[in-house]
Design a protein that fits this description.
By secondary structure, the chain is mostly helical. The protein has four helices and no strands.
Length: 104
């Protein structure tokens, strides 16, 4: 399930980021994402011959971020919730915790 979630996020965001970098940013908002990225990546030693290479690098790096974000969004809460639910079984009971204070 985590693998599908990560792949779905990476795939969907890859398509969305492509349109943001190539159409929505430059045409609608007048933001030159590719030029800014090319200058930023050149500052850390990454040189690109043309804008398509910059675009692919940007999509690659954002895809890595999206995959890591999907994994961390599941793994960290799982690492916190599992031991906590063993010590406090009411957490995993399925009832909202606030109902203890609001119901009569």
């Amino acid at each position: 399930m985590l693998g599908f979630a990560a792949l779905a996020r990476v795939g969907l965001m890859l398509v969305l980021n492509y349109f943001i970098f190539t159409y929505i940013g430059p045409v609608i908002f007048g933001i030159d994402y590719l030029g800014f990225s090319q200058k930023s990546l050149a500052a850390v030693g990454m040189q690109f011959a043309n804008p398509w290479q910059v675009l692919w690098a940007m999509l690659f790096f954002t895809s890595i971020f999206n995959g890591l974000h999907a994994a961390f969004s599941v793994v960290i809460p799982y690492m916190i919730f599992t031991p906590l639910s063993l010590k406090v079984p009411e957490i995993a009971s399925g009832h909202p915790w606030i109902s203890k204070f609001t119901s009569h």
